[in-house]
Amino acid sequence: MVDTRPLAVCLYGPTASGKTDLAIELVERGPFSIISVDSALIYRDMNIGTAKPDAGTLARAPHALVDIRDPAERYSAGEFRRDALAVMGRICQAGRVPLLVGGTMLYFRTLTHGLAELPQADADLRARLDAEMAALGVPAVHARLAAVDPVAAARIHPHDAQRIQRALEVFELSGRPLTDWLTQQERTESPYRLLCFALLPPERRELHQRIERRLDAMLAAGFVDEVATLRARGDLTLDLPSMRAVGYRQVWEYLDGLTDREQMRQRVLAATRQYAKRQMTWLRGESAATSLPSGASGLAGKIIGVWELARNLRGDLRSLC
């Protein structure tokens, strides 16, 4: 069967694997336009700790879906899918190719698999769950989730108030665990032919060294001051999704006097490495992606070569991988 869907390129990998540098090289060598697939880069005024590309880089290689929310706001995976598809449409209309780059794997999954049709949100139930979290603490409500949906609870961090709330909301509205809904979800065909590449470090030690070097550069660039400015606003709390971005909670707690600077640094390193491990686990399960060794030479040329072949292919893209 002839596949006439427009082509898009996905480039994903763990944190600190060199995705941004490779994406910029692709933009400079081909007709690509970058769409950020990163749940932290969406927030304004969170630049250093998220490793957001600087103004010069963004001017040279614009990134869509960066700086689109205030840190006090929430942003769902469904909203990302809606916004990403809208931007992809505009890019294709301009005769260019969407290049989706990032490490938020749930966001990528909304594009490759679609979203389950979950029960609609209920304002009264959410208000009750908010009050329960305020009275008992988020970890206690997470424990209640574990009793009715242990699989979801194992996947959701005990302080991730937004996702805990949604999982309990789905259960109370439907009588079925969120895990059941997601398991029974039928895969929705993407409106795009997605050519996916996973940027993977050859050795875990190498990735850990990159993470450590990047963190030290962030601290030298003023990461602590950035968090102090956010903390001083008065309208942000550690339960917000923005402040759950890796590193921000640990620096916030350092500013609260709960740790010293070296303890804070070690906690950020540990959290970042754990995050990278989760990303790697997800990536290893992506059989449709072509694995590329991060840091190797010639990666942009390889991606462009496969893309050029794919332009003339109207069948199964996996035959190229």
TrEMBL record:
GO molecular function, one term: tRNA dimethylallyltransferase activity
Keyword Nucleotide-binding among record annotations: yes
Pfam families linked: IPPT
Uppermost EC category: transferase
EC number: 2.5.1.75
Cofactor(s) of this protein: Mg(2+)
Biological role stated in the UniProt entry: Catalyzes the transfer of a dimethylallyl group onto the adenine at position 37 in tRNAs that read codons beginning with uridine, leading to the formation of N6-(dimethylallyl)adenosine (i(6)A).
Protein name: tRNA dimethylallyltransferase
Phylogenetic lineage: Bacteria, Pseudomonadati, Pseudomonadota, Gammaproteobacteria, Candidatus Competibacteraceae
